[in-house]
């Protein structure tokens, strides 16, 4: 009599855990393709990371960066981007049709957040859906602040 409840619990547990074993194979294959060149010393470049130094140098040389700040509105209240054409679109709103329409395809776009974590997620996802000119500011505003001093400003 005792075997029946234990067997039933085992089968029930197995049935409830089955969905955890499944995943979207098509999506996994698309991500495999996206990340196939992310190996070795070139991993950062393959992920389209841009250092604060390279970003600043590009600005000085007139590179037409369109910067998108993906921090929350509260974070952006204190300080934000002042570059021409820069946008502030919180992470949770980037993928709405209206906001996707704001992202240019003919200029390089750099995604910025506090530390680079949200920018990495957003930038990678934008490239995954077809935005080819999207880059990620490595280290975010923190990395930029650490790099940017009076000597680098000129």
Topology (SSEs and partners):
Layout: H1 3-21, H2 25-35, H3 43-46, E1 49-50, H4 52-60, E2 66-69, H5 73-78, E3 87-88, H6 97-102, E4 109-112, H7 117-128, E5 134-137, H8 140-147, H9 150-153
Parallel strand pairs: 1-5, 2-3, 2-4, 4-5
Explain what this protein looks like in three dimensions.
This protein has helices at about 5-20, 25-35, 45, 50-60, 75-80, 95-100, 115-130, 140-145, 150-154; strands at about 50, 65-70, 85-90, 110, 135. About 50% of the residues lie in helices and about 10% in strands. Helix 7 links the parallel strand 4 (about 110) and strand 5. It is α/β, with parallel strands linked by helices. It has a 5-stranded parallel β-sheet with strand order 1-5-4-2-3. The protein has 9 helices and 5 strands; from the N terminus they run H-H-H-E-H-E-H-E-H-E-H-E-H-H.
Identify the notable features of this structure and list them briefly:
154 residues, alpha/beta, five-stranded parallel β-sheet, elongated
Condensed summary:
The protein is α/β, with parallel strands linked by helices and 154 residues long.
């Amino acid at each position: 009599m005792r075997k029946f409840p234990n067997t039933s619990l085992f089968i029930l547990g197995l049935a409830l855990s089955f969905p955890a074993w499944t995943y979207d194979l098509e999506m996994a294959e698309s991500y495999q393709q996206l990340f196939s060149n992310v190996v070795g010393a070139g991993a950062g470049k393959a992920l389209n990371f841009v250092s604060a130094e390279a970003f600043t140098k590009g600005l000085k040389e007139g590179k037409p960066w369109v910067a998108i700040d993906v921090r929350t509105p509260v974070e952006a209240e204190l300080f934000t981007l002042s570059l021409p054409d820069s946008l502030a679109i919180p992470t949770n709103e980037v993928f709405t049709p209206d906001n996707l329409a704001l992202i240019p395809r003919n200029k390089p776009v750099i995604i910025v957040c506090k530390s680079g974590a949200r920018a990495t997620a957003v930038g990678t996802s934008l490239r995954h859906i077809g935005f080819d000119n999207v880059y990620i500011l490595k280290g975010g505003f923190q990395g930029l602040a650490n790099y940017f001093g009076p000597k680098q400003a000129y």
